[in-house]
Amino acid sequence: MAIRLANAKGRAVLVLGDTIADVERASNNKFSSDPMAVLAHWDAFASWAAGVNPGAATGAYDEAVLDAPVPRPGKVFAIGLNYKSHAEEAGLPLPTKPLVFTKFQNCICGPRADVRMMGSAYVDWEVELVAVIGRRGKGISEAKALEYVAGYTVGQDISDRKLQFSDTPPQFSMGKSLDTFGPLGPALVSLDAFKDPNDLALTCHVDATQMQSARSSDMVFGVQPLIAYLSGLCTLEPGDIIFTGTPSGVGSGQNPRRYLKPGETIISTIEGIGTITNKCIA
Predict the structure, then answer these.
(1) Alpha helix locations (H) across the chain?
(2) Is 148 in contact with 139 (CB distance < 8 Å)?
(3) Rounded to two decimals, what is the model's pTM?
(4) Are 126 and 244 in contact (CB under 8 A)?
């Protein structure tokens, strides 16, 4: 059975349709209530969770109380220009190896969190498939890469373009790491939930207007090559996450450019995972 791990008010829960099972309670304290501790023992947890049935439910499923399914990732990797369509709209050549930057942990927030725009008029949206690492590994081959993935979740790589491009070279990590600039959710979904985990539909709306629509198969470097590349440089740990890049349709790619305004809502959806909804506030 596919696993949907969520974070309800700081507690790890399994999503079972329209109900949830509190992990600590349903496992008789075998696993912690802390989502990060669950990820640290992912293989054992996944084996247990696969056998949990709806009779283990401890409450109703309510997305309004969800926080990020990976609230304190050890490393937050992000990949630039990783969709062919996005490179084309930016007028840039396709990269020959992954363009890696980081988002700082403080930016991570939940699937219904408000995005605080810090008074900037240049804040942009980027819907992204986020891969969550479930096993420690170094030098992982592409052939075995997905064995190290606990699952996928939906992410928004919110970006302050003025800060990002305020100087030369650009301040990628800083411009993308302000508080609330990394919404995640609504749940971490194990790969067995997907017919093809390398080909998922993703969309982003700003209010009622669709801005982005693509499939993850348009990536320049898919999840397996990214894991092989990153693990060749540093050890990957359970709870590390990878923002895998965004397709075309970002605000800075519009003509004229179009950025987020206070009061607008970003709605980001990925096939088989769900939707995160984040309102922009001044």
Answers:
(1) 23-26, 35-40, 42-49, 84-90, 161-164, 172-175, 223-231
(2) no
(3) 0.97
(4) no
